Amino acid sequence: MAKQRFRDVKQGKTTAVEPKRTKKGGQERRYATAGEKVKAFLTDSFMLLMPIMYTVFYLVLGSREAFAEHKLAGWLYILVSLVVVQTIFMYKSGQTPGYRAYNLEVIDESTGKRPTLFLILFRNLTAILSAATLFGWTLMFFRKDRKNLHDLLSNTVVIKKPCTSC
User: Fold this and answer.
1) Positive/negative CA dihedral, 89, 64, 131, 119
2) What are 48-70's pLDDT values in tens digits?
């Protein structure tokens, strides 16, 4: 197959290439692209992380200067709160606000259903480890299924939700 030019796709002369699909257990899944996952992460950063950081800076510690003096405790408050909030969102619907904005969902790779509470908590805790090493986050750019390190460790996958209203 010849390489498609962006101009041709934009003008409608050809169609864009579909992201990779896989069949697991008789149902077809469409993996989320790296771009969708990055955009969802940025959306979550502003919708979840920024209010948590503001709360820790000014309500818990009192000021930015107090945060600067107690950085370890401050980051511990921020990360624990973020893991708890993300776990609640993912347990209830399989999506954080960023995933919902881009129609993404976290599922258990082996069952194809929403992961258990323990698995979601484990995934979110290992996501911090993954972010600390930077290797875990860049892994999605080299794999066909676009899995991060925390997805590999927890046996989860981020997929594009099937459109039910189409």
Assistant:
1) negative
2) 999 999 999 999 999 999 999 99
* Mean pLDDT score, 81-86: 95
The Cβ-side half-sphere exposure at 14, using a 13 Å CA radius, reads 12
Domain boundaries, the chain: 30-160
Q: Which of 24-38, 106-120, 124-138 has the highest mean pLDDT?
A: 106-120
Is the whole-model pTM more than 0.90?
no
Tokens in use for 68?
């600067």
- With 0-12 / 13-18 / 19 or more C-beta atoms within 10 angstroms meaning exposed / middle / buried, residue 66 is middle
- In this structure, is the dihedral angle defined by the CA atoms of residues 114, 117, 118 and 124, taken in order, positive or negative? positive
| Structure tokens belonging to residue 137 | 């986050």
The residue among 165 and 115 whose pLDDT is bigger is 115
Contact 79, 128 (CB under 8 A): yes
